[in-house]
Amino acid sequence: MQCRKFSKQECHDLLVKRMAHYDQGNEACVKNWSTLPVETRGAFNSFSYNVGNGAFCGSTAARYLRSGNIAAACNAMLSWNKGTVKGKKVKLPGLTKRRVVERNICLRGAA
After folding, report:
1. Are 61 and 45 in contact (CB under 8 A)?
2. What are the pLDDT digits (tens) for 2-47?
3. Lower CB density within 10 Å: C or N end of the chain?
4. Following DSSP, what letter does each residue of the chain receive, concatenated?
5. How many CA atoms lie within 13 A of 111 on its CB side?
6. pLDDT score, position 1
7. What is the pLDDT of residue 81?
8. Average pLDDT, stretch 76-101?
9. Which of 15, 68, 13, 69 is nearest to 45 (CA)?
10. Residue 80 and residue 55: Cα distance in Å, rounded?
């Protein structure tokens, strides 16, 4: 396959389409999804984009969302900051930063 350059608009359109996929997946496992604040949904769509809908749907965060405890759900994202390095689970600084940003956006909706 030949290398191809994408315009900013094409990249934006692809991202919007991909995020819609994660939004639909999250809605399928959190029945009250459409009633959640937009900030909360956005943060968890970003989270699912990174970990996958299956991991999100089986997570403690999703369980908290289903029970209506948004703040606990937002905080539960923070534990998803590890990766495997040389066969061992370790905290990754970049992933820790990402989770803090996602949590902070998420909590704006819980206020």
Report:
1. no
2. 788 999 999 999 999 999 999 999 999 999 999 999 999 999 999 9
3. N
4. -------HHHHHHHHHHHHHHHHHHHHHH-TTGGGS-HHHHHHHHHHHHHH-HHHHHTSHHHHHHHHT-HHHHHHHGGG--EEEETTEEEE-HHHHHHHHHHHHHHHHHH-
5. 7
6. 53
7. 97
8. 97
9. 15
10. 10
Map tokens 């959190």 to a residue.
30
Per-residue model confidence (pLDDT) at position 109: 78
Q: Does domain 8-110 have CATH number 3.40.50.2000?
A: no
The full set of domain ranges for the chain reads: 8-110
What region, left, alpha or beta, does residue 89 occupy, with left being phi > 0 and alpha being psi -120 to 50 degrees? beta
Q: Give pairs for 98-101: CB < 8 Å, separation 24+.
A: 98/50, 99/47
